[in-house]
Specification:
Length: 320
């Protein structure tokens, strides 16, 4: 009888120790043994439906820049670049015939710059009449981007998703190669000026390809200009600490473009990632203790190991 009582006491002590350990881990904000180094991670904020879709497909969704939440993002740098390109062309306008006879390479560079500027107007400046007149050009000029942040608990991002927010943490190293262009977003006038200087220098040094000016101008507008514009934003967004994955037009097979339904139809491309690069799931301010159980089940359902992925709760003071 004494032995049975001793065994029962030991079991209860073991249960209490396990419960205490689990509670400590939970209140510490993690459900894995070794906390991750968040400096090595980037976070994609999304809704519950988005979390399910991303984990299920094993891909991030890169959205056509024309359908971003703030369409003015692209116009911010695009408008200044178009003006700089226009200003660079002005000295040549009166003497194009003479330039063609004197220096065919320089003439080619000027003409390609002019064509690229015109096409940039279609894509970046939201000139509706020009878009309607050149519909076939505009339709095939998309650049696709997906957005991440260095911050795992950004109040502004949670506000966008209300009670329904999650952030998926990815190891940066695992995102290398997921899309052709990957890097930090830059902010403000200095970033715009740097972009414009680099673009003008690029066109001034560009070698002729033997193609028509209009062809080369179109290609440069959608493969050189648009992806770079997508990495420059207004300084009001600087607190987002954003990184982006971008897919230029000629890295896209148009047959791979899919459409999701939000408040409208939104074209996107799937950027496949290795499941091992998922480091953390952050449950937004609207979540509760039961959300952890649901996230673990979701991870298991789609072949992820919930013991290897950190699951945490937001500490942001937002309750929708």
């Amino acid at each position: 009888m004494v032995n049975e009582q001793g065994a029962q006491d030991k079991r209860q002590a073991d249960y209490a120790a396990v419960a205490s350990s689990d509670y400590q881990r939970l209140t510490a904000g993690r459900l894995v043994r070794n906390p991750i180094d968040r400096k090595q991670c980037l976070y994609h904020y999304t809704s519950a439906a988005g979390l399910k879709g991303i984990l299920e497909s094993g891909s991030l969704w890169a959205t056509d820049t024309a359908f971003l939440n703030d369409r003015k993002e692209i116009r911010y740098a695009g408008e200044v670049l178009e003006q700089r390109m226009r200003a660079r062309l002005e000295p040549y306008i009166a003497g194009l015939v003479q330039l063609r006879e004197a220096d065919s390479t320089e003439y080619n560079r000027v003409m390609v710059l002019g064509a690229a500027r015109a096409f940039l107007s279609y894509f970046a400046l939201d000139e509706r009449e020009m878009i309607i007149e050149s519909n076939d050009i505009y339709i095939n000029g998309a650049t696709f981007v997906t957005c991440l942040s260095e911050d795992h608990d950004q109040l502004g991002q949670w506000r966008a998703y209300g009670q329904d927010g999650y952030a998926i943490g990815f190891y940066r190293s695992g995102l290398e190669g997921v899309a052709p262009v990957f890097g930090p977003v830059k902010y403000g006038d200095a970033a715009v000026a740097e972009l414009c200087d680099e673009a003008i220098r690029y066109f001034e040094q560009r070698e002729p390809t033997g193609q028509q000016y209009e062809h080369d101008g179109y290609v440069e507008a959608v493969t050189y200009c648009l992806p770079r514009i997508a990495f420059v934003k207004h300084p009001a967004f600087e607190q987002e600490k954003e990184f982006r994955l971008a897919i230029p037009r000629y890295d896209v097979d148009l047959r791979e473009v899919k459409v999701r339904l939000t408040s409208s139809l939104v074209p996107y491309i799937e950027c496949n990632f290795n499941k091992q690069c998922v480091a953390e799931i952050v449950i937004g301010p609207g979540g509760n203790l039961h959300s952890v159980r649901a996230v673990r089940a979701l991870l298991k359902q789609y072949g992820y190991d919930p013991e290897e992925i950190q699951i945490t709760h937001s500490n942001a003071p937002f309750r929708g």
